[in-house]
């Protein structure tokens, strides 16, 4: 019996680029949990604000989270750094789950349905996006519109 053959779809999850991105997102999540845990002990009010900002970022997006930071009178650079960190963490996890679901590395039906729906919507608006190329997409994604 010869060695097992592995095609590219059957690579181990941790060997794929998306698997590595997923692990990066998990590590970033652990860092956020540790940061909030530290503030629970040192400054519970700040910990509560960081948790609310995290939830706002997940549910309402970047604009809601930044608005909540401003409302809680956080300084500019901590707002910038924390929200960038949250954005990076969320993108790492959501992107990797999307790709790993589409490539059948992860077989969660609900993720596959969402990924298929997003791919359908992206194809439907493909002409609009291609018209402005990467700069239009960059501006659309980075603009913190509510």
Short note summarizing the structure:
The chain has 146 residues and is mostly helical. The protein has helices at residues 17-42, 44-60, 62-71, 76-102, 109-124, 126-142.
Proportion of beta-strand residues: under 5%
User: What Rg is obtained from the alpha carbons, in whole angstroms?
Assistant: 19 Å
Low-confidence stretches: 1-7
> Could you describe the largest sheet, including whether it forms a barrel?
none
Shape: globular
Helix percent band = over 70%
Structural class: mainly alpha
Number of helices: 6
Terminal-residue CA separation: 60 Å
How many beta-strand elements?
A: 0
Average pLDDT level: 79
**Strand/helix succession:** HHHHHH
List the main descriptive attributes of the protein structure presented here.
about 150 residues, about 0% strand, disordered N terminus, globular, 6 helices, mainly alpha
Overview of this protein structure:
The chain is mainly alpha-helical and 146 residues long. It is 77% helix and 0% strand. It contains 6 helices and no strands. The chain is globular, with a radius of gyration of 19 Å. The N terminus is likely disordered.
């Amino acid at each position: 019996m010869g060695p097992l053959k592995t095609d590219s779809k059957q690579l181990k999850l941790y060997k794929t680029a998306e698997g590595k991105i997923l692990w990066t997102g998990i590590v970033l999540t652990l860092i956020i949990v540790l940061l909030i845990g530290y503030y629970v002990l040192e400054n519970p009010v700040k910990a509560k604000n960081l948790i609310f900002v995290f939830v706002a970022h997940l549910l309402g997006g970047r604009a809601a989270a930044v608005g909540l930071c401003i409302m809680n009178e956080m300084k500019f650079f901590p707002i910038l750094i924390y929200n960038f960190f949250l954005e990076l963490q969320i993108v790492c996890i959501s992107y990797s789950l999307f790709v790993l679901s589409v490539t059948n590395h992860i077989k969660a039906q609900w993720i596959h349905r969402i990924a298929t729906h997003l791919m359908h919507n992206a194809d439907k608006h493909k002409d609009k996006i291609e018209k402005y190329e990467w700069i239009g997409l960059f501006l659309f994604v980075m603009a913190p519109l509510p």
